Amino acid sequence: MSIAVERPVLIEALGQTRGKAGVAKDMALVALGIAALVLASKIRVPMWPVPVTMQTFAVLVIGAGFGLRLGLMSVLGYLALGAAGWAVFAGESAGLAYMAGPTGGYLAGFIAAAALMATLARRGWDRSVAHMAGAMVLGNTVIYGLGLAWMSWLFAAEKGLGWVLQYGMVNFLPGDALKLALAAMVMPLAWKAIKR
Fold first, then answer.
1. pLDDT given for residue 15 in this prediction
2. ω into 8 cis (within 30 of 0)
3. Residue ranges per structural domain of the chain
4. DSSP letter at 153?
5. DSSP character for 169?
6. Burial status of residue 12 (CB atoms within 10 A of its CB: 0-12, 13-18, 19 or more)
7. By C-alpha distance, which of 71, 49, 47 is closest to 59?
8. Euclidean distance between CA atoms 127 and 7, whole angstroms
9. How does DSSP classify residue 51?
10. 3-class DSSP state for residue 112?
C-alpha cells in the first residue's frame, strides 16, 4: 500500500511567508478569493438553456489553487457575506432565507467541493489536463449531490424528481462542460508558467 505524496498547492508554490507577514499575506489571499467568487458569480454568459455564471468555476479553482485552509476560508467568507445580506450570489438576493431556499444545497456543496479540490490538488491532480478535468467532474458531482438532495427535499413531492433533475442539474450541464474544459487547461498552464 502506497501513501500519496503531499504536494504544494499553486499558491504555496508561488512563495511562503512566515510570521506577521504570512498572516497578512493569508488575509490578503482570502480577501482576493472572496472578491474572485463575488466577481465570478456576477459574470453571466448567455447560453441555452440557461445563462452560465462562473461561480462554480471559481469555487473549484480556488479550492485547488489555494488549498484547504485558504480555500475554505475564502468560500466560507463569501457565504458569510451572503448570509449577512450582501448581494454576492448570482442574483440580487441574499440573506439566510435565500440561502435556505433552492440554492442552499449547492451553496453547502461549495464548501465540500472546495475541500475535495484542495485534497486532490495536494495529490497533484491540478497539474495535468486529464487529472484536472477529473477533479472538476468530482467537484461538480459533490455540488450537484448536495444541491439536488436539498432541492428534492424542497420540491420532489410537489413537482417530481424529473423536474428537480431538469431544473437543478440538466439545464446547467452544457455550461459546466465549458467551465470544466477551461479549468482543465488553466491550472496546468499556471503550473507550467511558475516552473519557468
1. 79
2. no
3. 13-194
4. I
5. T
6. middle
7. 71
8. 11
9. -
10. helix
Which residue is it, cell 510570521? 19
**Letter for the amino acid at 124?**
G
Q: How confident is the model over 108-123, as a mean pLDDT?
A: 98
Task: Band the pLDDT of 18: cuts 50, 70, 90.
Answer: low
Cα–chain-centroid distance for residue 93?
19
Q: Which residues pair with 52 in a beta bridge?
A: 45
CA distance 71 to 137: 18
User: Could you give the 3-state DSSP secondary structure of residue 53?
Assistant: strand
DSSP strands (E only) in the chain: 44-45, 52-53
Q: Compute, in degrees rounded to 10, the torsion defined by CA atoms 53, 192, 68, 96.
A: -10
Report which secondary-structure segment, H or E, holds 133: helix 129-151
Neighbours of 117 (CB within 10 A): 32
13-194, what's its fold? Arp2/3 complex 21 kDa subunit ARPC3 (1.10.1760)
Share of the chain above pLDDT 90, in %: 83
Spatial distance between the Cα atoms of 134 and 141, rounded to a whole number of angstroms: 11
Tell me how far apart the alpha carbons of residues 171 and 194 are, in angstroms, rounded to a whole number.
Answer: 37
pLDDT digits over 126-145, tens only? 999 999 999 999 999 999 99
